[in-house]
């Protein structure tokens, strides 16, 4: 797997998001189109842009990851 630094490509907010996801058990990889793909068993894949257009993008992605975790636990799969 690529390092956090390689995945973030120097973007500090993205690095924080990736570190959060890895700490929560998500796998992170870059797609051919340059987006980030977050995967975790029992959860739907989550995609986000690696070049966010606003300051809320990384916060919104983090919220999506937390919601997916909660939903998986609620369905008895987490």
Q: Kindly provide the radius of gyration, computed on alpha-carbon positions and rounded to a whole number of angstroms.
A: 12 Å
What separation lies between the terminal Cα atoms?
23 Å
Number of strands: 3
Give the SSE string.
HHEEEH
- Please state the average pLDDT score: 85
DSSP summary: helix tally: 3
Shape label: globular
Q: Biggest sheet, open or closed, and with what strands and sense? A: 3 strands, antiparallel
- In what order do the strands lie side by side in the largest sheet? 1-2-3
Low-confidence blocks of residues = none
* Helix/sheet category: alpha+beta
Tell me roughly what share of residues is in helical segments: 40-55%
What fraction strand? 5-15%
């Amino acid at each position: 797997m690529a390092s956090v630094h390689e995945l973030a490509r120097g973007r500090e907010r993205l690095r924080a998001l990736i570190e959060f996801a890895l700490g929560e058990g998500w796998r992170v990889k870059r797609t051919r189109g340059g987006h980030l793909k977050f995967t975790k068993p029992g959860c739907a894949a989550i995609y986000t842009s690696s070049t966010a257009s606003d300051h809320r993008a990384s916060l919104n992605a983090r919220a999506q990851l937390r919601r997916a975790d909660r939903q998986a636990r609620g369905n008895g799969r987490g």
